[in-house]
Queue: 2 jobs
Job 1
Amino acid sequence: MNKLNSTQTKQIKKILKQIKEAKNILVTTHISPDEDAIGSLLAANAFLKQLGKKVFAYTEDPPPIRHSFLKSAAIKQSDLTQVIKNHKIDLILFLDGNDMDRFTRQSDNLINIIKQNKIYTICLDHHHTGKPQQFQIYLNLNRSSTAETIYILFVDQNNQKLNSSISQYLMMAILGDTGRFLYQNPHYQDTFTIASNLIDHGANIEKITSQIRNFHPDELKIMSWLIANLQIEDGFNYSYITETQLKQIIALNITPDNYTGACHHFIDNYIRSTGANRWGFIINPDFNDPKFFKGSMRSIDGVIDTTVFAQELNGGGHKQASGFRLPAKNIQVALKTVLKVIKNNYSKALKSA
Ligand SMILES: [Mn+2]
């Protein structure tokens, strides 16, 4: 299983060599971290510690509270440039993204400090759009998740041992990015072999699912608004949260975690499976900065390439799941922009599906 071509094998050898030579390693993942981001980060942290490395696992955003059952406290929050300064970092492992802007809100500062300190950069990823040239080694094995790439790197290629906590981390990540083994996946044989091995070593799909799919009543309230705002168009569905609704959410002391959790659940489970349409999007004001609107697009395999739209909106991702962040005066303006981009690029996105 996990057959790699010679370029990939060489890259992996290079990565393992750099890890061996490094003293202080920073491992990080993208802002607004999801299951794959947190699970991959926790697993990479554990595998590097097995190798006797000094590891610093940091993100700029906190992990969602629903991941706390995995002792995600091992991940600390800080401005990444500060971590580099404080701990003489000589190697950074970036996980689950391939654009410095995904890892920090101040990418210019981060790029500068990396250059000044001659820090080696490695990126492990599985996305199809971005800026991989920003990293010295960029490894993308086209897997369903970054977690599978981590498994291949450390378990398959470096003979490292799984234990029950690492198995739980990797399983959570794979469950998150595969939609619980739902999505069409060219490497399905590897995915199921890895998953089976993780269960052998203590991962429990039912328990993990009950943790990450345990709804807070506030999430259901926000989902009811997304349901009320749902628009069924000729070809696609969409919904949104208005800036007035965000104000209400804040007034009700609803946490950012429950806000984004509700949006994720709605987009993953309803937008592409309501009525006759098989793709759609949602858009909602950024909790921390309501001058920006966050959008997510989802489609069923082979229906439409959503990255065609997402890239026009300065975002990216996968054909069936992509995202973007858009500055706009209000929800009406944001929606108008997105609908216009869809209209102007529809045939291109259909062709590219
Ligand atoms: Mn991922």
Job 2
Amino acid sequence: MKKKLVTLLIMISCLGMLLANLTIQIKGEAKPQTLKETTFSSLNYVDLEDFSTIFKAISKQDRSDNRLYLNLYDEQFIFLEDSPYYTLKAVSYNMNYPLFRKGERLYLPSIFVTEHLRTHFPAAIQRKGNTFQIAKPIDNRLKTIVLDPGHGGKDPGAIGKKLKANEKDINLAVALKLKNLLEKELGVNVLLTREDDRFVSLYERTRFANEKRADLFISLHSNSSKTMVSRGIETYYLSTAQTSDARAVEALENAVVERFEGGSEAKKKYDDLSFILSDLAQTEHLENSNNLAVSIQQNLIAGTQGIDRGVKQANFYVLRGAFMPSVLIEMGFINNPEEEQLLVNEEYRERLARTIFEGIKRFKFRYDRIRNT
Ligand SMILES: [Zn+2]
């Protein structure tokens, strides 16, 4: 008898799982999408990831206090694990049954989708039976990346000691390979600040990224130092706080302005501009810039077996004024004969592009889905 009851319960819950699906019709799209429901303790849920994919929602979990931040239609909902309550604009709402965690996955009570969302967004979401007509979701996922091959044209960048390789050529070659990978394998839109050997001022590079509303700005460089023994890879993001080592690289990259963009007059322009812009532009992106830098650096080191010089902060002109997470990668020392040999090698350039790609991919996954803090 007991066994029968259990079987019956399993059958009912399976039936529930099979039958209970929500149909989501996004306005302007030809085909409706199916949002699967699943049942826990006879209560209906939708998988947070499935929901996020259809509604283009971005969620961020704070595992330290079990909160879930869910952004959609430019509003932020804050949920608490195992609690039926959530807040929107500082007002609490009750779903009657709780946000549920199973392993790594979070499940939203179906009632949030079927009832609550309609009351919060009456203009955007309408219900007809089990079909929901929704306005085109605001897509905040990472879509556009600007790659910035450092130097170019009259500015060769650093020059190799042994093979006389020009930094500008290495930067461009890796950028083109990276663009290819990002477009093919990640489906993002990739724009280059230069696609051939031409001079582009530092100011124009970030202006281009801002104009194109890029989600990421990645500047590619090859390093140089006074001594030929320096070696390894480092990734920077913008900051005014810095070590003396970082300051040396900063001086090297920033020298472009003095030498190729009209001397100290141009430098003053950048300094004035940075005073106004850099704080505003980069402060809100510091955390993401840091995360992106760490992700790229880790993958670069793992994939190339290069010397890890770490993630650093420096005050680069080229990163100032960029209204998006931005990093600058120094892919190796061109004045170190061994590393110069690598940097001109086609296979090694492939590997650099591939490992930077992996770093961006991992960052994008977290950025688009669940950003753990
Ligand atoms: Zn450079």
